[in-house]
Amino acid sequence: MSDKKLEDAVPDAPPHVLRDGNKIPQLGLGTYPMDDAEAEALIPEALWRGYRLIDTAVNYGNELGVGRGVKASGINRDDIFLTTKLPGRHHGTDSVRRSLEGSLERLGTDYVDLYLIHWPNPSVDRYVESWRTMIELRDQGLIKSIGVSNFLPEHLLRLEKETDEMPVINQVELNPQYQQELLREFHAEHKIVTEAWSPLGRKTDILQHEWLSEIARSIGRTPAQVILRWHIQSNILPIPKSSDVTRMAENLDVFDWDLSDDQMRRIKMLHTGLSGSGFDPLEHEEM
Ligand SMILES: NC(=O)c1ccc[n+]([C@@H]2O[C@H](COP(=O)([O-])OP(=O)(O)OC[C@H]3O[C@@H](n4cnc5c(N)ncnc54)[C@H](OP(=O)(O)O)[C@@H]3O)[C@@H](O)[C@H]2O)c1
What confidence score (pLDDT) does residue 1 get? Predict the structure, then answer.
């Protein structure tokens, strides 16, 4: 495919500008639970369909496949935004550098666009130390932007207090059933972009909710598109995962139409406060 055709597939949507000045697309592709082989086959398909943001992690065990897929796509590395994450077992100082070097090697690149602390793991109490090392690695050019995942305001404030630097992004569980309004307000006050994992509510039944089906039917869209458009209009950056190329394309086709204020209000009422994963960052630890 020609470069022009490839670029034509990218949605015409201005990126989010992070507090550090870097830019990130408004929607990305999640890759859990793809394995290396699946990621290697699917990442080019996603990139050819216009995705430019790919989300992976050491703990997904697919960085090698993601890196191979990026190369196989033929798209310039600089035009792709790659996110990976620091696992709990690598929190520390030297271990963070080693972990990132391993990720870079598997991804086949000399920098990542965004590096996140995957979970705060408060009982281990090494996320501040890890953050300090991430600041250094960013300053050395191995990472463009640094952020976190599954952090609560108390963890974010502690980073600011002890290092003078807040993350540019917090990636958290968020979908119409679990809207995280207070956390989003905190993020907005501190210029932190809210990125949503399980944006379609995997492990919930939200995609089957009749109100979403009604809205979808009335505008000739699908329930998944309605949910993703709700994220976009709420200034949330969703990273839906799909291993199906038709659903991948469907999930990216959310930029040249709008939900009405009424439809947005209806979706706001779907909040139940029930997380699909049941993971509380104060208690849940991932190594
Ligand atoms: N930071 C963290 O702690 C954390 C935790 C969990 C996930 N994540 C990241 O967030 C990404 C997304 O979250 P998630 O995978 O948990 O949930 P999700 O994106 O909300 O849902 C994925 C599920 O929805 C299905 N799906 C996708 N598009 C669809 C459509 N248009 N219609 C109907 N079903 C559709 C997928 O099946 P098909 O594949 O068959 O289409 C898959 O079963 C992950 O892949 C991962 O990158 C991060």
Answer: 66
